[in-house]
Amino acid sequence: MTNIDTKRETNFAVTLTPCHFKENTYIAHVPRRTVTTDQILDLVSAHNQGIDRYQVAHAMELLKKEILEQTELGFAVDILEICKLYIAPVNSVKSLTPESESVSGFEARFAVNDRLREKLKGMSASVTAVVDNSPQISQIENPVAKDISEKEILKATFSARITGKKLKVEGEKGGVFFVPSIGDGTSSSSEDDWIKVPNEFITRNTDRTLEFILPRTIESGKHYFIAVRTSERRGIELKNPITGISKIPIMVAE
After folding, report:
1. Nearest 5°: phi and psi at 154?
2. Does 148 have pLDDT greater than 70?
């Protein structure tokens, strides 16, 4: 539940997510923190000493009932001069005889009051965080291993499973790669050394899970980092692919 400061102070801030369609551009997002009806009533009581909280609550219930009834009758309702609630059809209607059709399927929509719109334009906020939109690998395992200790060792030409976030491989330049671990325990920076898993070897491809068969070009007895790369978002090919690399190398055995 959102904590409400009765002194009307706020830590209003936004998060930024890199826009992969435009260089050096970020999409600002306001985290959604919901204030409940009970919290609103607490604030009304705190800012208006002596008011009967239960009378206000009863009045709010009556107001809500009338708003819903008028909306159901097809009216657009001006809610406290803050926004206008109205209904609209969800889909278009295809018909040879439109006059005889019965339209079904509606949704609620809101139009912001001009005064509120102008107030919001003048607001400013700090940035709390820049969100990393790259694939995030949390675990790599051998899904067919029976012994827990062997799950951290991949078998050459066998399958592997990756779990995490934003893992789905998409786009022409997307893929799963084995990145050789060099002498100091870090991943090779030269992509010429990376070994790509053929796309047809990927058997499961979701945001949370990747499963694939190890290609024969992977050398057993060596350590590799796993890189997951996507070059497509929402059906659009990105100018610069997004890559996530595992933090810990994994052993490949015979």
Report:
1. -85, 150
2. no
